[in-house]
Amino acid sequence: MKISVLIPVYNVKPYLDECIESVFANIRTDVEMILVDDGSADGSSELCDAWAAKDPRIRVHHQTNQGVSAARNKAMDLAQGDYLYFIDGDDRCLCPFFDEMGENDMLVAGFQQGRRKVVPRKKAEGTDNPALSFLKEDVRCCMGSFVFKTSLVRENDIRFDKKYTHGEDLEFMLKLFLVAKSVKIYFQPVLDYRVVPTSAMRKVTFKRFDIYFSRRDLIPYCAEKGNTAAADYLENYSCVEAIVVCARELSRSDVPARELKTFLSQHPDMGETLRKGAANTSLPSSLRSSAARLVRSPWLFKMHTKGQYMMYDLRAFLGRIKRRMT
């Protein structure tokens, strides 16, 4: 069994050595590593070449900056292994979980972010619909905490969609879950997931709504693969949640409510999704009320969101004071 480790690299020089070393320390099988330098300008390009010069298992491809999806797609094109493993250049592999792969199409595991551990829930064990369990976050993983057969992407033409800057990873993973015949779950964190200053996760813009658009566009794909349960969940829960979560992040920032209102008016399908969510009694009451509030008045939604986060921050502050006094 040969594993191709695929690393998109963009301005991650302070972390890249540790990332590469952590992978080699935890893979005990035949391995190749492909570094796709996506137009780095911080010395990462030269560091990639230095690694390739001293380790024959490493190959480097340099390209002009095209985004992480294009870099990942290029890495898949270059891969020669039986299995693929993606890890970002600022993350760190924690343990040799690859040994658990067996003959399965996919192996999925958890991750840690700082002190927070995110692992699959025990009720996901033995699930007969791993795609639905993934959407419901019973199967909990991220890029860098799963391995999959190369044949899955090549036989099913699964690629990262370059038009999305957010949500492209969930789309890619869900498509793999939909076509995989056997998925093994490993109930431990295997990745140290770091959100660094250059991460897209830190940028709050209207492009965050790509999370909604990518989920909306997955609905017909799920139906085409015969997974109506996943399609229904996407339409009636995930899409509503995506709009509300993105709107909260924008409302918490300095984005004016009128700009949010304008954006929603330019995408009437989002308004219709919110209205259906507000009327869907099977949704959690907090999500229903948030959807209804956002439809009625983005300004009131923004004020309510800011109030909520002020309370969260106050509770966190009081909690820190209490811990110091005890």
- Give a quick account of the main beta sheet: strands, pairing sense, barrel closure: 9 strands, mixed
What do the pLDDT scores average to? 92
Overall shape: it is globular
When the domains are counted, the total is: 2
Radius of gyration: 21 Å
Return the CATH topology of the largest domain. Spore Coat Polysaccharide Biosynthesis Protein SpsA, Chain A
Structure description:
- Strand 1 (2-9), helix 1 (13-26) and strand 2 (30-38) form a beta-alpha-beta unit.
- The protein has 2 domains: 2-195, Spore Coat Polysaccharide Biosynthesis Protein SpsA, Chain A (Alpha-Beta Complex), CATH 3.90.550; 204-321, no CATH class.
- The chain is built from 12 helices and 9 strands.
- By secondary structure, it is of the alpha/beta class.
- It has helices at 13-26, 44-54, 68-78, 130-135, 150-156, 168-179, 210-224, 228-252, 257-266, 268-279, 285-296, 298-325; strands at 2-9, 30-38, 58-63, 83-86, 92-93, 106-113, 116-118, 146-149, 183-192.
- The termini are far apart.
- Strands 1, 2, 3, 4, 5, 6, 7, 8 and 9 form a 9-stranded mixed β-sheet that branches.
- The longest helix has 28 residues, at 298-325.
Keywords:
326 residues; Spore Coat Polysaccharide Biosynthesis Protein SpsA, Chain A; nine-stranded mixed beta sheet; 50% helix; globular
What is the element layout, followed by pairings?
Layout: E1 2-9, H1 13-26, E2 30-38, H2 44-54, E3 58-63, H3 68-78, E4 83-86, E5 92-93, E6 106-113, E7 116-118, H4 130-135, E8 146-149, H5 150-156, H6 168-179, E9 183-192, H7 210-224, H8 228-252, H9 257-266, H10 268-279, H11 285-296, H12 298-325
Parallel strand pairs: 1-2, 1-4, 2-3, 6-9
Antiparallel strand pairs: 4-8, 5-9, 6-7, 6-8
Helix pairs in contact: 6-7, 7-8, 8-10, 8-11, 8-12, 9-12, 10-11, 11-12
